[in-house]
Specification:
- This protein is α+β, with helices and mostly antiparallel strands.
- It contains three helices and five strands, in the order αβαββαββ.
- The chain has a five-stranded antiparallel beta sheet with strand order 4-1-3-2-5, covered by helices on one side.
- The protein is about 20% helix and about 30% strand.
Length: about 90
């Protein structure tokens, strides 16, 4: 069980989904940075102020029927996730 004081800390995340999301999705996903990877996936990265924000992002992905491939914890400043060439969005917070 994670103590409440740790759960409520902002944390960086990289979420990888199947397919290349169009640029218009960057507004729908807020301040997340979208990176089109060379393997045909999209990496969304940013900082979640708390676990509820992360779960909200995962709910959006589920509701859109997008295939979730992975969720990784990252340093809050590591907003330039991935090695793709096409980046969309400022990459700030979830």
């Amino acid at each position: 069980m994670i103590p409440p004081h740790i759960r409520s800390r902002p944390a960086g995340y990289r979420v990888r989904v199947n397919g290349h999301l169009d640029a218009h999705w960057s507004a729908w996903f807020g301040d997340l940075m979208l990176v089109h990877e060379s393997d045909g996936t999209t990496t969304l990265s940013g900082v979640a102020p708390d676990q509820a924000a992360l779960h909200g992002l995962l709910s959006k992905i589920r509701d859109l029927g997008i295939t979730l491939l992975s969720v990784e914890a990252a340093c809050p400043s590591a907003n330039n996730a991935g090695t793709g060439t096409d980046q969309t969005g400022p990459g700030k917070t979830l």
